[in-house]
Write a structure and sequence with these properties.
By secondary structure, the protein is α/β, with parallel strands linked by helices. Helix content is 41%, strand content 19%. It is built from 14 helices and 11 strands. The strands form 2 sheets. Strands 3, 4, 5, 6, 7, 8, 9, 10 and 11 form a 9-stranded mixed β-sheet that branches. Strands 1-2 form a two-stranded parallel ribbon. It is globular, with a radius of gyration of 26 Å. It starts with a helix and ends with a helix.
Length: 354
């Protein structure tokens, strides 16, 4: 009987230990936070391709190293349509062009941002703050670029005006972006059209048709067209043109006398995020001067933090850097343009497809 009693007592002790172990595991799981269910996890949408490689190496990996236990997951090619239709429930940070950030901010999907949340807030250029129609900051630009003219400098002289696209010399040798507002804005500047009278813009797009080899849809498309020799000039990003030149290809970039358009890649935090504190910490880290300088060095887009310092060799490549370079570029009033965007696209399609 004594032996049976001992065995029974040992069993009770064993079960108690097992219960404590299981309870600890379940407790740990139950205390997990973050979009993917693990403590400290944040999910960030991205652009994919080369951008993601640089982003991971110079932003994500250093952030994770500095914050042990934090996990950053990338969600490439997440569209605005997907977010607007409820596809962002597992996403914390959206990386999008400025107009898309402002658009979904106006739809009420993004958290408001303010100076108390970010240590780098007061060091940012004025053009960094992406505001909705109520004037609230719903996103912060993390890189600056210029929309202007890329050209093959072995086949043509440096263009000085946006009217190069209408030059008969380049019949069938030019490319523009498909339904892209910066191209419309630059044509508006060239023709002197106003928001209330856009007819000169649509007339100009009718006239330019013979010169356009392709209205491209992918931002990377001009690279292949330049390589094949099918085009000599294109409306494009400074960063992508600089990258081609750095590879030894005869491609240069210029901002014409009419100016260019400031391209702003931004980040915002979804209201549905389950880890907003860590999301803000991540964006703040991305705005750190050293992090911004490293990113600019490898992707050729300028920093949005005034304190970021770039080598002269990089500045001489023509990267969008410093107040003077930023100020010569137009910042579209997206809150005014977005309601007109559908009509502009319909007009653009009509005049370019005939």
């Amino acid at each position: 009987m004594k032996l049976v009693k001992k065995i029974r007592n040992l069993s009770i002790v064993s079960l108690s230990i097992l219960f404590l172990v299981v309870s600890s595991v379940l407790s740990a799981c139950g205390n997990s936070t973050g979009s993917s269910g693990s403590k400290g996890t944040i999910v960030v949408t991205t652009y994919g391709g080369t951008y993601d490689k640089v982003f991971k190496q110079y932003v994500v990996d250093p952030f994770v190293k500095k914050n042990p236990g934090v996990n950053v997951k990338l969600a490439p090619y997440t569209t605005v349509a997907k977010l607007a239709n409820g596809g962002g429930k597992n996403i914390d940070i959206v990386s999008l062009d400025d107009f898309d950030i402002i658009d979904i901010g106006n739809k009420g999907l993004l958290d408001k941002m303010d100076a108390k949340q970010f240590s780098n807030w007061n060091d940012l250029y004025d053009q960094t703050y992406l505001k909705n129609k109520e004037g609230n900051t719903v996103g912060l630009a993390v890189e600056f670029g210029a929309w202007g003219i890329a050209y093959n400098h072995e086949k043509m002289n440096k263009p000085t005006s946006w009217n190069v696209f209408w030059d008969k010399e380049f019949k069938g040798k030019a490319a523009m972006m498909n339904q892209f507002i910066p191209d419309i804005i630059m044509t508006q500047k060239l023709t002197g059209a106003t928001d209330s009278n856009m007819k000169p813009v649509w007339d100009a797009f009718k006239k330019v048709r013979p010169n356009i080899s392709q209205y491209y849809s992918s931002f990377s498309a001009p690279e292949a067209m330049f390589d094949s020799g099918s085009i000599e000039v294109a409306s494009w990003f400074d960063g992508r043109a600089i990258a081609m030149k750095k590879q030894g290809k005869p491609i240069s970039f210029t901002v014409p006398k009419e100016g260019g358009v400031l391209i702003r890649g931004g980040e915002g935090i979804l209201k549905s995020s389950k880890n907003k504190k860590m999301a803000r910490k991540f964006i703040d880290f991305r705005l750190d001067p050293k992090v911004q300088a490293n990113f600019a060095k490898h992707l050729y887009y300028g920093p949005t933090n005034k304190a970021a310092k770039l080598d002269n060799s990089l500045v001489n490549e023509g990267i969008t850097y410093g107040q003077e370079a930023i100020d010569r570029l137009t910042v579209p009033d997206w809150n005014k343009i977005l309601p007109e965007r559908k009509d502009w696209f319909n007009q653009w399609t009509e005049v370019t497809s005939k």
